[in-house]
Amino acid sequence: MMSHSQKQLFTLNRRALFGHGAAGIGSLALGSLMGAQKPDPLAPVLPHFAPKAKRIIYLLQNGAPSHVDLFDHKPTLRKMHGVQIPDSVAGGKRFSTMTGNQTARPCLAEITEFAKHGRCGATVSSFLPKTAQVVDDLCFIKSMHTTQVNHAPAITFLMTGAEQAGRPAIGAWLSYGLGSESEDLPAFVVMTSRDKEASCGQIFYDFYWGSGFLPSKYQGVKFRGNGDPVLYLSNPDGMSRLTRRTMLDGLKELNTLKLQDYGDPEIATRISQYEMAFRMQSSVPELTDLSREPQHILDMYGPDVLTQGSYAYNCLMARRLAERGVRFIQLMHAGWDQHRNLNTQLKIQCTDVDAPSAALVKDLKQRGLLEDTLIAWGGEFGRTPFLQGDINNTKQWGRDHHPYAFTIWMAGGGVKSGYAHGESDEFGFNAVRDPVHIHDLQATIMHLMGIDHEQFTFRFQGRQFRLTDVHGHVVKPILA
């Protein structure tokens, strides 16, 4: 004879079974949300060790800056300008469809002038004079390499550790693992900008800052380049702040009941994000009010600093976000894609980003924030040392995508200053000394934030996932 409770169990439909079975999970989530002191045994214990950096500003140069024109000086390219690059160097390599079938691959000399700068003697292009002034604060990695030859999968790989969309972005991983230092701003903020001429058609896909299989609470919050920085943050006409608070309190009660019934973490996310949005109604206007910024600081970032949505504006906003405890700040600037306009567009693009990038380093340093703020600057790959196009048509000179060697720089947050790591070959084609893979870079960033990348995992679809997949080594020589 079955008891009443046993009969109920056998008569539950599928939806009710999952709903009641998840109630325990919902209680845990609600307890965490309401500030309960009971620890979650499944929560990651982070950081694993003392971090060098508390926050990260990633200055992603979408489209890929040409390393051989900006940072990686190769006299051999000038010596062999117009001569076919040897098959022993380029033979059998994969390129984009724009040069995949191009049989003529003449070496293309740098279109800029290189000079050594600072006490460290770093070589920097004449197109980046402001960056050249801060080289003693920078750590160059000249042996980066990756797997993809097209923008979207290469950026996805850089930001999420996988070429296919759907994995959590690095900012989401860090938000999940470390939380936020700010109660009034998101842990992960994204801002985008592009070259004034709109010279390329690159798209900013949301999965570049998505949460993947992590709860959506951890995805990046995009600050827009015009109007209200965050959509729907302003109250509608006629609604007071008190009315909004009363409405949110009622909505929270209803959502809490659903959370108790079903334990869906997305309900917990919705509750917390409504509360964050309410607090941001006060914090964002203060954040974006630049009226108290000294004129010499505004001048340092360049003439576009007050133009909302510009790279210069976003760099200044990144400093202000860092001051206020935002964990991961992701700036994405499109336009580095000089396939047919290298002789014209590269200088324009450099002018847009040079002063703001250098100003961010100097600004953080003078405020004592650079030592625990990691800045990273670079693209998803480099550009080919050989020419895309006709050597005789100088107006349409270009360089194709190049994953085999490229340069990025980092500053602050526990990396060496005035230092260059790794080396490409004499053509700037392959990384030949101390190569650094994308997964190595990700592992190093995690390490600087106090995280062992091999131990920081999330179980999904029956396996443990991590940002670096099953790869990656910390690049110890760059650590301060």
Structural notes for this entry:
The chain has 480 residues and is α/β, with parallel strands linked by helices. It has two domains: 51-229 and 292-478, Alkaline Phosphatase, subunit A (3-Layer(aba) Sandwich); 237-287. Helix content is 34%, strand content 15%. The chain has 15 helices and 17 strands. Strands 1, 4, 5, 6, 7, 8, 11, 12 and 15 form a nine-stranded mixed beta sheet that branches. A hairpin with a 6-residue loop joins strand 13 (423-424) and strand 14. Helix 3 (23-33) packs antiparallel against helix 10 (241-262). The longest helix has 25 residues, at 342-366.
Radius of gyration: 25 Å
Helices, by number, come to 15
Largest sheet: 9 strands, mixed
- Ranges where pLDDT stays below 50 over 5 or more residues in a row are 1-44
Share in helix: 25-40%
Query: How many beta-strand elements?
Result: 17
Note the gap between the termini.
72 Å
The best one-word shape is globular
Hey, roughly how much beta strand do the residues contain? Answer: 15-25%
Which CATH C-level class of the largest domain is it? Alpha Beta
CATH topology of the largest domain: Alkaline Phosphatase, subunit A
Looking at the overall shape, the CATH architecture of the largest domain is 3-Layer(aba) Sandwich
The helix-and-strand class reads alpha/beta
Overall number of domains: 2
Keywords:
disordered N terminus, two-stranded antiparallel sheet, 34% helix, Alkaline Phosphatase, subunit A, 480 residues, 15 helices, alpha/beta
